[in-house]
Design a protein that fits this description.
alpha/beta; Rossmann fold; 26% strand
């Protein structure tokens, strides 16, 4: 990322001209562990990008209310998903405990301050479903975790229901119940 370019400008550049993932394609298949572990009827997908996961949840779980959130307005406009809230993951415009489940897939590694995101996710939600890359970070990724380092990061925020490595997808998936 160019130091002259803001983070929002960077992600808008990434999303401009990029096509969205196709339903049932590789990107939506990696969401299966998340879909199987949703809690409660109110869900927010933080750093939703093109809102592919939100669209899949809506198709497969019409009983849930799903909100997409991201700070990249280009992704929001191209996604066509509603409701889509333009927001920073560390300062969301929602009341305390507005959501049952906060989802963040493959985005926390790009965040400047993961603990600030986790504090905000705990404020707005009861549960966190999180996926992060396992192994070497990709270009632009600021943080990479092993199962042990991710466990250490998450532990102060609540009770870890599970933390699993999915080697076929090169990712870790965690489910955390937030505590006060």
């Amino acid at each position: 990322m160019n130091e002259q370019m803001s983070t929002v400008e960077y992600w808008n550049t990434i999303y401009t001209g990029r096509s969205t993932a196709q339903p049932g394609g590789h990107e939506t298949d990696r969401f299966a562990p998340v879909l199987a572990n949703l809690e409660g009827p109110r869900v927010i997908d933080v750093a939703a990008g093109y809102a592919d996961l939100c669209k899949r949840i809506r198709r497969e779980r019409s009983d849930l209310t799903v909100v997409a959130a991201d700070f990249a307005d280009e992704a929001m406009h191209r996604s066509g998903f509603k409701p889509y809230v333009l927001t920073d993951a560390t300062a969301m415009p929602f009341p305390d405990r507005a959501f049952d489940t906060v989802i963040c897939t493959q985005a926390m590694g790009y965040m400047a301050d993961p603990p600030a995101f986790l504090r905000e996710a705990r404020r707005v939600g009861w549960w966190l479903l999180l996926t992060v890359s396992d192994g070497e970070p990709a270009a632009g990724v600021r943080w990479a975790w092993t199962p042990d380092t991710l466990h250490a990061l998450l532990e102060p925020f609540g009770e870890l229901e599970f933390l699993s490595a999915l080697p076929d997808l090169a990712m870790l998936v965690a489910k955390l119940r937030f505590t006060a």
